[in-house]
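fyi for ur records
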Amino acid sequence: MGTLTQQGAFRKDRNALNRAKKADVSTADIINKMAETHSNPNSAQAFAEAAGAVIHVETNINKESPIHDAFEAIIEERNALFNSGEITP
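which gave:
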């Protein structure tokens, strides 16, 4: 099997989530199965990383950009503080 591009990997995960909905496989079931294969199975970290991966794909499916949105909010807040004189460059 060849190596996947980032876009190819996203498509595979997107398709898997869409198939899971049709097959009545819950997001929790997917997260639990992913956590089983973690280097530290059944740890909070295993579940957090699995959930984060699923959330990442879901936000991309919904064409959301939470990292960009957070960055823009930080810049907006900094500019407001700078313009009000509360901080200096």
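Residues 6-64 form one domain. thats all i got for now
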